[in-house]
Amino acid sequence: MDLAALLKSHFLCHLIFCYVFIASGLIINTVQLFTLLLWPVNKQLFRKINCRLSYCISSQLVMLLEWWSGTECVIYTDPGAYPKYGKENAIVVLNHKFEIDFLCGWSLAERFGVLGVSQADTPLSSNTITSPSALGRSALFLIHCEGTRFTEKKHQISMQVAQAKGLPSLKHHLLPRTKGFAVTVRSLRNVVSAVYDCTLNFRNNENPTLLGVLNGKKYHADLYVRRIPLEEVPEEEDKCAAWLHKLYQEKDAFQEEYSRTGTFPETPVVPPRRPWTLINWLFWASLLLYPFFRFVVNMVSSGSSLTLASFVLVFFVASMGVRWMIGVTEIDKGSAYGNMDSKQKRSD
User: Fold this and answer.
1) pLDDT of the residue at 342
2) Rounded CA gap, 280 and 288, in Å?
3) Edge-to-edge, what's the strand order for the sheet holding 90-94?
């Protein structure tokens, strides 16, 4: 193991990342509370400021993926559709099989310059966003229609439900939950221009984890993106559900082809990574680490047994907190999908 790899895997580095993330998050959340005063006066300014503040938080995780880990993501897509990415509002339908698939979705949004304004799995009502101008800029709405990450146990349960409903079996996906997708499409019918069907996989059977990213492990992601005009998505809920089931059958075929050939259809392209995620993290690190290290040095140099014991306790609690944060993303710590009763399993 070289020096850089050893440094990246050191727990102290992980603790620093988590400290900066949590401390900056608390500061940003406090500022966001004060921006509520703007809502009755200027909603557009409120949204614009909160988009920037949200970016300051989410971009720190993207920085870990793109700059610390150096994970590469190749997009396979139609060259005619590629120029529209980042320049229009769209719903992103992403498969949910990997611990870091949400990070890859955020990375996609970041590389097209819309990370701050994009949303993930956020419930929408018909009056939340009423027009494209309400967003102020282009946005991506990321949803995981499967509802939970893929595991063999969940897949077995899901296919039992598919069989009971007379739906074709899927090999690489869970049965999509159609009601949430239909509500999202109905709510955003006058806002978005297209659905981006995104199918993610990793080369050489890599099994990426957030802990691996934190340890600086480099992964190689391939993402197949199809742009589907929203006009092709039916408005009626039953027809919309049938359309989504057909979409997932196509996604399953793409995954099967990838497992056989190691590549997706269409033309590969690598969007350049932008420096702003790294600059944002360096700003917060420079702002927060100096007082932190000064506090630690003062505690250690005090010589007080009680102070040192308190420091060790805080360090232990912090380490447990880091493990808990990482554990939240682990696949086997996911939802209780598959443990519900048969009535719930057959509900959509």
Assistant:
1) 42
2) 12
3) 119-120, 140-143, 90-94, 194-202, 220-229, 72-77, 267-269
pLDDT, one tens digit per residue, over 332-343 is: 655 555 555 444
Among the residues of 165-275, which ranges form H helices?
Answer: 178-187, 210-214, 237-261
Phi, psi angle pair for 74, to nearest 5°: -100, 130
Alpha helices by DSSP H, listed for 77-177, are: 101-111, 152-164
Contact 109, 273 (CB under 8 A): no
Q: Which residues of the chain have pLDDT under 70?
A: 1, 119, 121-136, 319, 322-323, 325-348
Q: Which residues have CB under 8 Å from 207's CB, separation 6+?
A: 98
Q: Comparing C-alpha atoms, which of 146, 108, 44 is closest to residue 270? A: 108
Residue 269: predicted pLDDT: 95
Placement of tokens 């420079």 in the chain: 286
Residue 128 near residue 187 (C-beta atoms within 8 A): yes
How far apart (Å, rounded) are the C-alpha atoms in residues 150 and 159?
12
* Alpha carbon distance 14, 61 (integer Å): 12
Which residue bears the tokens 């998505």?
Answer: 233
Residues 6+ apart with CB under 8 A from 310: 299
Computed from CA positions of residues 235, 232, 224, 77, in that sequence, does the dihedral angle turn out positive or negative? negative
Nearest to 66 by CA among 268, 324, 266, 279: 279
What integer pLDDT is reported at residue 215 of this predicted model?
92
